[in-house]
Amino acid sequence: MRAAAWLLAGLVTTLGTGVVAHAASIKERTSYFAVRGSTLEELDADLQRAGPLVAATGARHPGATEVRFDGSVSYRETSSTCRVGKTDLRLDLNMMLPRWKAPRRVDAETRLVWKTLEDDIRRHEKQHSAIAKTWLKKMESAIRNLRPERDCSAMEARVNQVTKRYLAAHERAQLEFDAKEGREVNRRLQRALVRNLEAMAAR
Questions:
Q1: For the segment 85-105, what is each residue's pLDDT rounded down to a tens digit?
Q2: Which of 109, 113, 121, 161 has the largest count of CB atoms under 10 Å?
């Protein structure tokens, strides 16, 4: 099952030009790319050919999740201070997954191995989305709880500083997740394959 070595799905993070603040909307979509083949070797080769190209690694992956944070924040000024007012955060998530239409004469083992891999790719990418949502909430909370500054220029600078820190922490969390998944990929897929084999035998 050489395709297992390809399970390090990537993350592309695109930062918006606006100031990120209070969570207002999350848009999620899933797109698919076709994978062709009748054997595990052919499927592995086509994943490497057709998988999404991730700029961060310069390589193609069996799945990927694009994460885009964007948004804006307004400020409330008094005679002596300025604080965060209305906020609007937008998070766009695009999960890209493989889709295989099996030829008629593909053997049951190949179908089972593919299902095991496909399920794990989907689980992996859903976790990338979950990490982004978690850091969205953390960033929202941090910005909403900022103390007032002496003026709105200082308040805006503080919001930008906090935003950059949380976006960087989000990126680290995504990379740490990929690193952990990479270390455990073979064991995880072997366990999943055994479960699927047992389920098939019990039918």
A1: 887 888 999 999 999 988 888
A2: 121
